[in-house]
Amino acid sequence: MRVNLTVNGRPAHAEGVWEGESLLYVLRERLGLFGTKNACEQGECGSCTVRLDGEPVCACLVAAGQAEGREVETVESLAGAAGLSAVQEAFAEAGAVQCGFCTPGLLMATDALLRREPRPAEAEIREALSGNLCRCTGYEQILSAVRLAAARRAEGAR
Amino acid sequence: MDFLRPATWEEALAAKAAHPEAVPIAGGTDLMVELNFGRRRPACLLDLGRIGELARWHREKGAVRLGAAVPYREIAAALGGPLPALAHAARAVGSPQIRNRGTVGGNLGTASPAGDAHPALLAAGAAVEAASVRGTRLIPVEEFFTGPRRNALAADELIRAVRIDPAGGPQEFAKVGTRNAMVVAVCSFALALDEAGRSVRTGIGSAAPTPRRAREAEEFLAGVLAEGGHWEDRRPPPPSAARRFAELAAAACAPIDDVRGSAAYRRHAVAVLARRTLDRTWTAYRGGERCA
């Protein structure tokens, strides 16, 4: 079947989509957007986190046909013409990246958190990232990065 | 595989009647896992995501009519007042990403013994609104679960909503798992006190082939509370009664050993959760004082 959707603000379409296929497969294999990672395929790891009509979801658990006519934002939407977003820069500066596989999902979860709650409490940060796994044991640096990004935003640096 | 995308509830019922083999999909948090892993290849998917009414709730004759596809995020955020146990269970589901998609209708459709919503629905006395082109029927939730991952729906029926009376007293939900997020319950328990009805209801999760009530425990505790005048003077039930309530809750379990926990552990943990939820609900009933 054919699926039409908006990806990162631009109309996109995929042909020959299998009806049981996930949005994740469409993004990576049909639209060539490899930032969204494929790992557990069961909603456990958060590596495939994208925003669907503004809400963070696991792309692996959305059937492609369910994304028809919807707006999807992937990690590729974060950086602008001026460079990396404040959240991305904070992750790089805080050393919140090791192998990098979990990073796109964590960036999307952090971005969604700070859009909703610009000054999150510690418990809110942990809750917001509870659906994203990192296997390089980098959680402390990841939490530091979220605090740094929140502080930068609060300062109005960007 | 067919992918049906009804725009209205009537179209959805007609589609399910014409294709009884069609598997409904809303949040996808259960079904997509099975598709991704090749465990299931339904001939037809029925996407309920276009039907706006399914994602809304409203009050109807006092009760909450919860659309089958209201996501857990919304239940946790908006329904803590009338449905405290269900809102608590909603907060315990998966992760933010899962709560943005997962639904009570999906939990009921999957009918896993471990579904987080089930104990809360049992304790609150919910009824499932099952509909088909033949009409609509209300199924009390304790009659809805017919076996592990089996439910009372006919092949042409869809879950439209769940009707739940607002809490008539304190309610609690508690769940055992290895961490606070992304956990399939090792076991879970919900307790609802109804002050006006002088009654107690429970729900046990993940400790029997289906979610179930602990009826003997309910009757025992209701008797203790009535005979001791506890509803009136708000003194906590004696520790011996709390212990007996916990024992009866454990006795209502029929658990199995599996990768998440042993049967013996589950029985023990359900007893602990029963006592803990009794303590918390009675503390709330007394108005914040700590009970023994």
UniProtKB/TrEMBL annotation, chain A:
Domain of life where this protein originates: Bacteria
Keyword terms of this UniProt record: 2Fe-2S, Iron, Iron-sulfur, Metal-binding, Oxidoreductase
UniProt xrefs under PROSITE patterns: 2FE2S_FER_1, 2FE2S_FER_2
Residues of the 2Fe-2S ferredoxin-type domain: 1-78
Pfam families, alphabetized: Fer2, Fer2_2
Keyword RNA-binding: no
Keyword Protein biosynthesis: no
GO function term, MF aspect, one: metal ion binding
SUPFAM superfamilies: 2Fe-2S ferredoxin-like (SSF54292), CO dehydrogenase ISP C-domain like (SSF47741)
PANTHER family the record matches: OXIDOREDUCTASE WITH IRON-SULFUR SUBUNIT, XANTHINE DEHYDROGENASE IRON-SULFUR-BINDING SUBUNIT XDHC-RELATED
The protein's name: (2Fe-2S)-binding protein
Automatic annotation (TrEMBL), chain B:
Keyword Mitochondrion carried by entry: no
InterPro entries hit by this protein: CO_DH_flav_C, CO_DH_flav_C_dom_sf, Diverse_Substr_Oxidored, FAD-bd_PCMH, FAD-bd_PCMH-like_sf, FAD-bd_PCMH_sub1, FAD-bd_PCMH_sub2, Mopterin_DH_FAD-bd
Domain FAD-binding PCMH-type: 1-169
MF (Gene Ontology): FAD binding; oxidoreductase activity
Keywords: FAD, Flavoprotein, Oxidoreductase
Keyword hit for Cell inner membrane: no
Coiled coil location: none
PANTHER family: XANTHINE DEHYDROGENASE SUBUNIT C-RELATED (PTHR42659:SF2)
Name of the molecule in the record: Xanthine dehydrogenase family protein subunit M
Organism field: Streptomyces hoynatensis
Taxonomic lineage: Bacteria, Bacillati, Actinomycetota, Actinomycetes, Kitasatosporales
